[in-house]
Specification:
- There is one protein chain.
- By secondary structure, the protein is mainly beta.
- The chain is built from one helix and three strands.
- A hairpin with a 6-residue loop joins strand 2 and strand 3.
- The longest helix has 7 residues.
- The protein is flat.
Amino acid sequence: DRPVRQPKAKPEGCCKLYCGNLSYDIDDAALRAFFEPLALSAIRWVTDRETGDFKGCGSVRKSNVAVL
């Protein structure tokens, strides 16, 4: 019953990577350290809509794909 959301335009050269099966103890600093060579521009954690509990996955964004 929710309205359909239109996808947002991606910036030129944007790269989004899915990260799954993560430890429930992970934090932004640990994920940035793991992806240090990529110089992440954003981290998004997936959480339960109702409880806000972390679901063990997320995504990272790197705006400059040239390093990959």
